[in-house]
């Protein structure tokens, strides 16, 4: 007897707000990998979020914050993509993760499977920064074999179709969709 594959939804958060950026192209490569049983969707509205400010933490939440929280809550896993800015992740991605981390005990990120890719000429450890932030906000980070995409080795005009990007995105999505091991969590 065969059963249909279990549905899994991965939400892609991109730390670049520029439409044609390499990071946005990589997000498109991830979306192109949607398949039966594993839907990949792009988070909307990151550019609408105000800078995180506890004075703006209201109940009900600001509409842009509530919308992003709902998107994360409806996903099974998270793929975070960020350009490397000054040896760290982008402010847009960090801001989104800051908003998503609240309220601390009811964050939609708590226990959410997550991994990330950073893109730059040199990572300067931004991949470690991204993993540290994901862990700090309560996500369950999973290991993907590639976490850094070097702009020197990519076709920046066709990044969504670059074999290195396709391989890295495939590895990340496979890691997010794989059965959760009983031991060996990072």
Automatic annotation (TrEMBL):
Domain NADPH-dependent FMN reductase-like: 10-145
SUPFAM superfamilies recorded: Flavoproteins
Record carries keyword Phosphoprotein: no
Molecular-function GO terms, alphabetical: oxidoreductase activity
Keyword Oxidoreductase on entry: yes
UniProt KW keywords: Oxidoreductase
One Pfam family from the record: FMN_red
Record-listed E.C. numbers: 1.-.-.-
Top-level EC class as recorded in UniProt: oxidoreductase
Highest taxon of the lineage: Bacteria
Name listed for the protein in its UniProt record: NADPH-dependent FMN reductase
Annotated organism of origin: Streptacidiphilus cavernicola
Organism classification: Bacteria, Bacillati, Actinomycetota, Actinomycetes, Kitasatosporales
């Amino acid at each position: 007897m065969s059963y249909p594959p279990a549905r899994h939804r991965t939400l892609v958060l991109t730390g670049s707000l520029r439409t044609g950026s390499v990071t946005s192209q990589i997000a498109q490569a991830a979306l192109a990998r949607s398949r039966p049983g594993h839907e990949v969707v792009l988070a909307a509205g990151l550019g609408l979020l105000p800078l995180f400010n506890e004075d703006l933490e209201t109940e009900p939440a600001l509409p842009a914050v509530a919308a992003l929280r709902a998107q994360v809550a409806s996903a099974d896993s998270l793929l975070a993509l960020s350009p490397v800015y000054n040896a760290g992740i982008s402010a847009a991605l960090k801001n989104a993760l800051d908003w998503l981390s609240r309220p601390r005990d009811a964050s939609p990120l708590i226990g959410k499977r997550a991994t990330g890719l950073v893109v730059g000429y040199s990572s300067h450890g931004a991949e470690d920064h991204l993993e540290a932030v994901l862990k700090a906000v309560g996500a369950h980070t999973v290991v993907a074999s590639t976490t850094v995409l070097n702009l020197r080795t990519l076709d920046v005009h066709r990044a969504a179709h670059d074999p290195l990007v396709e391989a890295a995105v495939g590895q990340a999505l496979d890691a997010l969709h794989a059965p959760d091991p009983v031991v060996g969590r990072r």
